[in-house]
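The instructor's notes for this session suggest beginning with a concrete chain rather than abstract definitions. Hand out the sequence below and ask the class to guess, before any prediction is shown, which regions might be ordered.
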Amino acid sequence: MAHEPIQRIALVGFGEVGGIFGRDFAAQGIGVSMYDILLHAKESREAMLAKARDAKVHAKESLADCVRDADLVISAVTASSALDVAKDASRILRSSQILLDINSVSPATKRAMADYFARGQGRFVEAAVMAAVPPQRLKVPMLLGGPHAAELAPRLRSIGMNATPASDRIGVPSAVKMCRSVMIKGLEALTVECLFAARRHGAEEAVLASLAATFPEMGWKEKLPDYLISRVAEHGRRRAAEMREAARALRDVGLDPLMAEATAERQEWLVCEIAGLNPGAPADEPFSWRALADAIDAALKAEKKE
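After discussion, reveal the predicted structure:
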């Protein structure tokens, strides 16, 4: 089984990650199907179908239709939907089929997924995606976990993925991901809070100069602030959900998730503030954290005048 080529892949969830993976798999000649609940929403259906057609991916109307002929099923949904997808998939997958769950959820949630599969026929492998997907696409580093991880890893590498078996225990890769996220997404949230406050005080240049002097290799005077804050601006709601999963992972080992919960709140705060703004800069203009901070401040001042 370990050396059998993967010829058909089903993607459950066709958002940013599902869209990237689907396009890259199809470009290799792999048969790719997808299912997304947005296909059932009138306001999003046509855009989702067009996205699938453009990627040479076959849209399906149900989970069962999507996974029927797949060798590999990849779950790339929201954190809140991941467990339900695993539960439903465990009831319909055959023994030759594998569900690879790449969602950012707690180790306990991954173990609950695996428990569903212990009562079914299909096989379950967890994956922790260890970097942002868009820059590296299929080459993004992934850690695999579970008793089938070592078997699946070379099959994934044969289709261009960067998969490393980390443990035969479910939950270990997720723990690595969650603990890392406390640091990475915490840094994003700290950057938002630090620099938005500094700009309101008229002190951001001095703050950035001080950070650059303390951490000269990080790029505080260059692209780093725009990059960190842009990640929150673009994906803050999803990242907040992930940090609440990280908080659960911390509670599960008896540690109060003070920083993880605060990070989730700050990430979600920025998304909510952006939602209240008029359309921002054109898509072809580079992201500017200063412009975003000024737009939010202007909106707050206008609200106070009313």
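Then share the key points. The first strand starts at residue 8 and ends at 12. The chain has a mean pLDDT of 93.
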